[in-house]
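#onboarding

Welcome to the new folks! Below is a worked example of what a typical request in this channel looks like: someone posts a single protein sequence, and someone else replies with the predicted structure as tokens. Don't worry about understanding the tokens yet, we'll cover that in week two.

Example request:
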Amino acid sequence: MNDGMEIFEFGPFRVDVLRRYLEREGQPLNLSGKAFEILVVLLRERGEVVDKDSLMRQVWPDTIVEENNITVAISSLRKALGETPTRPKWIITIPGRGYNFVGEVHCRTPKAEPVEVISIVEAPTRWSRTAKLIAAGVLPVLLAAGGLIAVYFSNRVSSKPVRSVAVLPFDIINKDSGNDYLGLGLTDALITRLGNAQLVVRPLTTVGRFADKDPIQSGRDLDVDAVVEGTIQTATDRIRVSVRLLRVRDGKLLLAQTFDVAKDNAFALEDSISERVASTLSLPLGSQQQNIQHERHPANPVAYADYLRGTYYAANFYNLDGYNKALHSMQSAIEEDPGYALAYSGLADIYYDSSNLTLPPNEAIPRAKIAAQKAVELDPSLGAAHVSLGVIATMYDWDWPAAERELGTAIAQDPNLATAHLWFGIHQMQLGDFDRGISEVRKAHELDPVSNIINSYYGIALFWARRYDDSINELHQAIAVDPSFMPSYVGLCWTLEVKGETKAALEACKQAVKLDPSPWPTLALARAQALVGDRATAAATVDGLHTQGDKFVSGYDRAAVYATLGRTDDAFAALEEAYQSHAEWMSYLKIDPLMDSLRNDPRYVYLLRRLNL
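Example response:
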């Protein structure tokens, strides 16, 4: 019986495969996704020895993993079942072969749950069947799941109201190249729909790191009141999504529901279910907000699927190939639906990110600006698009009033948008208002306490404010939260340098280059090398790094190295180059401690004047 609808019972335990939860005497037990899948495999093949190769094929079908992954998952499973390797009750280890589930097991298939029948309007015939399947497999399910979760919030199941939630990446049970983006797409859509003025929802960029991890521990790490997790299973003509809502403080299962949706006709449920989602939240949408909600999602399912793919690649693949796939998908979404504001906003972010990856700023940023302006034109209430315009104004145009206006608008539209507070704070710091700037960055940190970008910038903001001890503490904490995030090491390197701890700074920059050997950390390392006395290596690096393959090399970063080497004329030549290309870090010229040795030069004052600073 492998249809995914079994219910297994053994001893005091009950396993519901469809809803993906394990309970003991009616009380739910926390079990990670892979450990649960191993348990199901062992139950289905109970009485037989399941070798490790078979477990790897069934549980990690498209992933190369080490044998240790099985060991860790089995250990987690034994803990949940209350046994140990030396005193097993249910899972017997067969040395050199695999595992055998023993004991009496009862298996049954539950009766189908009643399904609400809603009259469906057929999609236009110009859409291919594949397109309808894609749309029907994503949109109605996310809306139905969002509506059900919202019921919980409005009913106040817990005596302590839920004020924050994390939607963890949905796990696709039968993942393939055609549906790999669905889990992240569903997560992103739920995040967008559940967010409102009274409910803080962690953004996609943060929760993406918590895939395949224990949901309760993830909730604690994300500092939220509740977590949403789920699974997606696709078939020829249907899609099944199981959703669970868990309270973090005690692990209590508050909600468990499965949605079984026909792919061919469920797309037309979008309007009715989105209204239901809004009506069940504590603050029902007014008519104007309902119109905005409707306009943000296209009627064209192909456009929506392309948007989800673009979001998926942009969030998961920080390389040239990922950028190109994200760019192509987002452009395809716009071609399918030229009125799709969210796609234009996503395109703006992709172009902006490319300015630090492959395209020079004066090529990438104008394209980003055009896309963001189009998004705002189509949807003036879209906070993320206003953030994009604000960042472009402050980082590229050096139009400080425009930056203040756009970022302020973003905060007014969405007070819980952490990135709006982050960039508004950084904008204030660029102008020299450190107190207000740090206050806004701290607000962003409170809204999204485990964001690697926000944590890193919080430490760097303290560096700009010359609060070096505080900066070092925050950057160490940022690294503890995400040891793989390169910018935190660069910021730590800078702060240790100005504190005179040059050897420690050198080690921090070496770690940054190990994580990402791109021009920015490479030049930061060159500066650290110069400060510890290895001037020849630093000079060779900066003199030879005018270009690095197809990657943009900022004159600003080169200027910082030249200034350290005492080559002042070369430093100002590099700054002029950075000015002409509108390099991002030029906007920090007024406050950057790395440039202190150049401040008394009249050429520096002239640059500040040209930057309207």
